[in-house]
Each structure stands twice: as structure tokens, then as C-alpha cells.
Design brief:
heterodimer, A: 114 residues, globular, B: seven-stranded mixed β-sheet, four-stranded antiparallel β-sheet
């Protein structure tokens, strides 16, 4: 069965600094990988996804993520963080088969300091 | 267009009572998912519908939990004999086809069992 680990529970970054949120997955075949963001009082919003092809994927709000099969990782990055990026971020993995649901990590809370 | 709608947004009930949580998916989305999110955790998969049938209910914690989607659109999550441990935010998501199509989440129903 697939699983997701987000090693960092809470990260604080200065506004304008770069960001990297870590995600490691466990799955025997090529996974489908996602990053979602959850702002206070709002639903989960898809940032980006990886299915196949180019291992560097671009998402909304200036985020990108890189799939590294050798490290079983799918880390989320942003070159310059804005105060509005403060939220909770979830990595998720899907098995790529019809009828299977996404499995989410426990999330990383991002705080942005001025 | 309209997103995924969940009602009520908040529900407080006494231990032992029965509750129903409703989800209106995005029109035309054939796949519907229920997740549960406890404080400090990522969304935990409960059940997945493809059309009217439950394609995967392996995440339901016990037989007190049941969900239906009789016409392939609106879904109701039903919890019998509620326990304090059932307190969580219950999230509904829909997707166009399932099969790892991106999930669109509602804002959730916060259930509190006193």
C-alpha cells in the first residue's frame, strides 16, 4: 500500500526567502503525486500534480515540485515566499488505478515572518 | 461555476446520537470521495463512489459509518451512535472521472460530539 511522509511539521520562512517542503512517498510502481494547500477556513486547493513525463512540474501561485524516483521524493519549492503563502501544505500519492483514492501526508504548516 | 458544497458547515451532537452529513459535488463529476481530517492530521480516506456505487469503502472505520449516493450526484455520510472520537472535519471531494483526476474539495463539515 502507498504511504506519504512529510518530515517537517512546521516551517517558518522569512518573506521573500526561498521555500522547500519535503515529501517522501512509498509505492511500488510509478506513483501519481499531488500537492494541496489548505488555508484557514478554506478547502483544500490543488497546487500541482505529477503523472508522467517531465519530472519538474509547475503549479499555481509560483510553486513547482520535482519528482525524484531514486529518492522517492516529490519536494515542493518556491523561489520567493509571500505572506499570503502561510497555510498548511499536504502531499498526496495515488496508485494510478481506477477506483483508488489519494493517500495524504500529515501536512506541513508554513508560517511566513516579515 | 459552483464548487463542492457541504452542509452543514458545523454540527454539534451528543454522544450516541445519529448524524447525517451532506455533499453536493460539482455537476458532471462522476467520482465522489469522503475523507476525515482530525486536528493536526492529513485527510484520511473513508469511502469512494464511482457513480452510484461505492467502489472502495475500505477506509470506513467501523459499521457505525455508512454513505450513500443514490442518484450518482449528492452523497450523504451517516454516522450512527456517535462517539467523541468521531469529532473531526469531514471533507467531501469530487473529480471528473476518478482514476487520479484532480480532486476538488468542499470546505468540510466540522463535527463535534459532546
Amino acid at each position: 500500500a502507498q504511504s506519504v511522509t512529510q518530515p517537517d511539521i512546521h516551517i517558518t520562512v522569512s518573506e521573500g526567502a526561498s521555500l522547500e517542503l519535503r515529501c517522501n512517498y512509498s509505492y511500488g510502481a510509478t506513483p501519481y503525486l499531488f500537492w494541496y494547500v489548505q488555508s484557514p477556513g478554506q478547502g483544500l486547493q490543488l497546487l500541482l500534480k505529477y503523472f508522467s513525463g517531465d519530472t519538474l512540474v509547475q503549479g499555481i501561485k509560483g510553486f513547482e515540485a520535482e519528482f525524484k524516483r531514486s529518492q522517492s521524493s516529490f519536494n515542493l519549492r518556491k523561489p520567493s515566499v509571500h505572506w499570503s503563502d502561510a497555510a498548511e501544505y499536504f502531499c498526496a500519492v495515488g496508485a494510478g488505478q481506477a477506483g483508488t483514492a489519494l493517500i495524504f501526508g500529515k501536512g506541513t504548516t508554513l508560517s511566513v515572518s516579515s | 461555476g459552483a464548487g463542492v458544497s457541504q452542509t452543514p458547515s458545523n454540527k454539534v451532537t451528543e454522544k450516541g446520537k445519529y448524524v447525517e452529513l451532506r455533499c453536493d459535488p460539482i455537476s458532471g463529476h462522476t467520482a465522489l470521495y469522503w475523507y476525515r481530517q482530525s486536528l493536526g492530521q492529513g485527510p484520511e480516506f473513508l469511502i469512494y463512489f464511482q457513480g452510484t456505487g461505492a467502489a472502495d469503502d475500505s477506509g470506513l472505520p467501523n459499521d457505525r459509518f455508512f454513505a450513500v449516493r443514490p442518484e450518482g450526484s449528492v452523497s450523504t455520510l451517516k454516522i450512527q451512535r456517535t462517539e467523541r472520537g468521531d469529532s473531526a472535519v469531514y471533507l467531501c471531494a469530487s473529480s471528473l472521472r476518478g482514476n487520479n483526476s484532480p480532486l476538488h474539495f468542499g470546505n468540510g463539515t466540522r463535527l463535534t460530539v459532546t
